[in-house]
């Protein structure tokens, strides 16, 4: 039986999962592949910590040179994360004509275009299923299963930490800080959770999906990004009254050759499939012209879910090698000549419905003044909820749901409203999407 040798860079949680799958599922993999995937070398700075598995003698090394450029190793897996030295290692492997598998969404969001070019120049495969939504095979779906479709939009819950926090806040009425601490205690959130809670991790993944869906180079800088730290328990209560749930959504749409990409807290109808995705799970909702709407759901992170995606990529590349057909599937779904810079719609020009929560002093004509300013800026009110006085005794919460409006019109209106003496705090805004 033919042997295809694999080298693994990074023996942390995910790396240990990959090693576990390759060793424990060796037979089922070879039965499917018709060849043996042999984990020949694992490189890491720490090769003494017990990872809970027995490895063949001589497999561990601290010397990266035993993997990169080694003519005996056909495929290199990069699982160290971050920009450097991951970028250098991946570049060198590709230049050495070794195919590469990575789970590194940050690397792809920042340097993906240059790395894909290196893969093309050297005639090798560069696969990255685990970089978006963990074990959910969404990249394979877009690159292959939906190849006959024009994709209209891709929307998703792409960060399990944020989804856990928002699910708990909605179910239990807990404060953001309290639930974040729970997530950290359970290992769902990092000690420094900034990338997760501020939407950066989600935006990295959306940048990749946008390129795959719409034949444009990866451009993370074009994505509007907002996090979840400003969401309050009261917002979930009002959302329920409107029949909505709050999720951190990644949204990419194409209309009239113009792309719209944004990450922010979003209210979506309770009946929508994405509204039913709770806890640490991820989901991607795709709207395509031939298939219509479809949902891909599962574990978006974690040791074994991510390892599953990495090994799936290894098997795909191995099949390409066995068939002498490397580069069978284009890196970004489309042929290189079809991938071109597109026009991105500025955030000021997007159209959305809005949830607005005002904290106003309990004075006469408050509602009429707010409504008047909204109306003069072309913002139409769909419904209003007014609470009684707050704990301070002289303020009231006024909540509105608007009809569809342009973002720049809303911002002009809120700038004027928040300057009123009757407004006690900046207005809370959450976009509402009813037609994903």
Please describe what this structure looks like:
The chain is elongated. It folds into three domains: 3-135 and 303-332, 3-Layer(aba) Sandwich (Rossmann fold); 138-300, Dihydrodipicolinate Reductase, domain 2; 349-432, 2-Layer Sandwich (Alpha-Beta Plaits). Strand 4 (75-78), helix 3 and strand 5 (99-102) form a beta-alpha-beta unit. It is an alpha/beta fold and 436 residues long. Helix 1 packs across helix 11, helix 4 (105-122) runs parallel beside helix 9 (200-214) and helix 6 (160-172) crosses helix 7 (176-185). The chain has 13 helices and 18 strands. The longest helix is centred in the C-terminal third of the chain and has 20 residues, at 303-322.
Major beta sheet, specifics?
12 strands, mixed
What integer is the average pLDDT?
Answer: 94
Extended strand count: 18
Shape: elongated
The SS-based structural class is alpha/beta
Helix content, binned percent: 25-40%
The Cα radius of gyration reads 24 Å
User: How many domain modules?
Assistant: 3
Count of alpha and pi helical runs: 13
Q: Beta-sheet strand percentage?
A: 25-35%
In the CATH hierarchy, what is the class of the largest domain?
Alpha Beta
CATH superfamily of the largest domain: NAD(P)-binding Rossmann-like Domain
Distance between the termini: 49 Å
- CATH fold title of the largest domain: Rossmann fold
**Second-tier CATH architecture of the largest domain:** 3-Layer(aba) Sandwich
Residue stretches low in confidence (pLDDT < 50, at least 5 long) are: none
């Amino acid at each position: 039986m033919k042997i295809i040798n694999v080298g693994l860079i990074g023996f942390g949680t995910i790396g240990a999962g990959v090693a576990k799958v390759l060793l424990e599922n060796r037979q089922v993999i070879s039965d499917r592949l018709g060849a043996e995937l042999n984990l020949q070398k694992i490189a890491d700075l720490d090769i003494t910590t017990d990872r809970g598995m027995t490895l063949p003698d001589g497999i561990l090394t601290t010397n990266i040179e035993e993997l990169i450029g080694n003519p005996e190793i056909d495929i290199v897996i990069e699982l160290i994360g971050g920009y450097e030295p991951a970028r250098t290692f991946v570049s060198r492997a590709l230049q050495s004509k070794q195919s590469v598998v990575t789970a590194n969404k940050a690397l792809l969001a920042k340097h993906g275009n240059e790395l894909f070019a290196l893969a093309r120049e050297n005639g090798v495969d560069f696969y990255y299923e685990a970089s978006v939504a963990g074990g959910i095979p969404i990249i394979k779906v877009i690159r292959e299963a939906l190849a006959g479709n024009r994709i209209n939009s891709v929307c998703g819950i792409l960060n399990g930490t944020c989804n856990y926090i928002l699910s708990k806040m909605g179910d239990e009425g807990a404060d953001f800080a309290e639930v974040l601490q729970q997530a950290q205690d359970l290992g769902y959130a990092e000690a420094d959770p900034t990338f997760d809670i501020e939407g950066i991790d989600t935006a990295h993944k959306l940048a990749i999906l946008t390129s795959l869906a719409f034949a444009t180079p990866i451009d993370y800088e074009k994505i509007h990004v907002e996090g979840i730290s400003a969401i309050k328990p009261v917002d979930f209560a009002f959302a329920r009254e409107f029949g909505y749930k709050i999720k951190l959504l990644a949204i990419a749409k194409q209309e009239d050759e113009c792309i719209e990409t944004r990450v922010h807290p979003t209210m979506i109808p309770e009946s929508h499939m994405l509204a039913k995705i709770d806890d640490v799970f991820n989901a991607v909702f795709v709207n395509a012209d031939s298939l219509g709407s479809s949902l891909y759901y599962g574990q978006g992170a974690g040791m074994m879910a991510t390892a599953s995606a990495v090994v799936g990529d290894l098997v795909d590349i191995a099949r390409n090698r066995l068939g002498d057909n490397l580069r069978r599937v284009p890196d970004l779904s489309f042929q290189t000549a079809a991938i071109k810079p597109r026009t991105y719609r500025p955030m000021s020009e997007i159209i959305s419905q809005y949830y607005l929560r005002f904290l106003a002093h309990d004075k006469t004509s408050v509602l009429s003044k707010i409504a008047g300013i909204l109306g003069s800026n072309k913002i139409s009110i769909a419904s209003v909820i007014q609470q009684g006085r707050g704990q301070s005794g002289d303020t009231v919460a006024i909540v509105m749901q608007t009809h569809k409006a342009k973002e720049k019109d809303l911002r002009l209106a809120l700038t004027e409203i928040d300057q009123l003496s009757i407004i006690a705090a900046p207005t809370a805004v959450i976009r509402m999407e009813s037609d994903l």
